[in-house]
Amino acid sequence: MTPITIGRRAAGVAAVLADANAEREHVASALIDVRSIRAWADAQEAGLIAQLSRVDSFPEATIADTNRCSVGAATKTKERSDTLAATPTLADALAEGAITAGHVDAVTRGSKRLDDEQRAEFLDRADQLAGVAEHGTIEQFGKRLDLEIKKLQSDDGDDRLTRQKKNTRLSTWIDLDGMWNIRGKFDPVTGLRLANKLDAATQSLFAERVPEHCPTDPVEKNKFLAAHALAHLVDGKAGHAASGRPEFVAVIDADAPPSAAGPAVEFNIPVELPARVLADLAASADVIGIVVRNGVVLHAPGNLNLGRSTRLANRAQRRALRALYGSCAIPGCTTNYDRCKLHHVVWWRNGGRTDLDNLLPVCAVHHTKIHNDDWIIELGPNRELTLTLPDGRIRCTGPPGRQTAA
Fold this sequence. Notes:
Elements: H1 3-18, H2 24-55, H3 59-67, H4 71-86, H5 88-95, H6 101-111, H7 116-128, H8 130-135, H9 138-152, H10 158-166, E1 169-174, E2 180-185, H11 188-206, H12 218-235, E3 247-253, E4 265-267, H13 275-283, E5 286-293, E6 296-299, H14 315-322, E7 341-344, E8 359-362, H15 364-372, E9 376-379, E10 385-388, E11 394-396
Parallel strand pairs: 3-5
Antiparallel strand pairs: 1-2, 3-4, 5-6, 7-8, 9-10, 10-11
Helix pairs in contact: 1-2, 2-4, 2-5, 3-4, 4-6, 6-9, 7-9, 11-12
């Protein structure tokens, strides 16, 4: 895009903004123009940073000063510029407003997962995928990049696990509020063990009573309890919770084609592990089998239908729905399942039951939309979702796909 084109689009955006009665289509079109203008500006910024890097020994400091941001944020902007310098097709697409800076940042993040030789090949492949980026969301493009990374790292998984163990890190710092912060990066095996110990400690310590000052928001409550559970584990006050057996959910898809080896089974865990390591972990864990077919849970342990006896879902219900959903059920939302509330499709206050077929994982943002902004949710017999928005638009999905570790 030329500066003249940018000026025309900016004028159009200003005109829509000044029109208090602008129709939704005009506002949506103006937002597309804003996205294009922002992409063009990001491309110009990247070019300027490339120039700056040739004449400034510490460009990040200058970027931080001019952008009024931290050096850490400036470093990310510099990394985006470096990525665009290595991917000219993506750079052109950004300058034309066909992609966003988020697409470029997805490439940057992916490149950091590779060694130097793999990184160069990955950047070449990413540049050839500019067309995919132009027609997909950042999330969709990121998934496509993940496939390329898997191809570059094609091995039995053991080599990758070794690399991950080498990259295990833990850092701590004190923020401006005087709070002690911790950030860690662990290989999948260590991470799963830590997660299971935290979950067991949280369940054991706070099943009946929570600490003082515990938030009421479910997401913040989970974070609060996890922090206190970690403190109890460090102090050795978690009792038997620390030695609780890990629990893995094995999802058995009854729709899978018949095989002489038996039904297809996937362990519903959020990380990839070599088959050998997964087998070792499963040998010392409680493996819970859940059978699903076309969006319906055919079998899962525990009481899945609580009726009107309680408003809150139990662990068995959350476990069963985890076999179907990896994230918020609203189309396009990627909020992780563990950060979702289980919403009553027929509201509790309207006589809804705490039964599995009346529960749906929804993130806090969309849960508020449903209750306060007149979003209407309906579920079909195979959990087909129909979402009706206040303006009459309807979004539909098919049955939820079986969630696997792949």
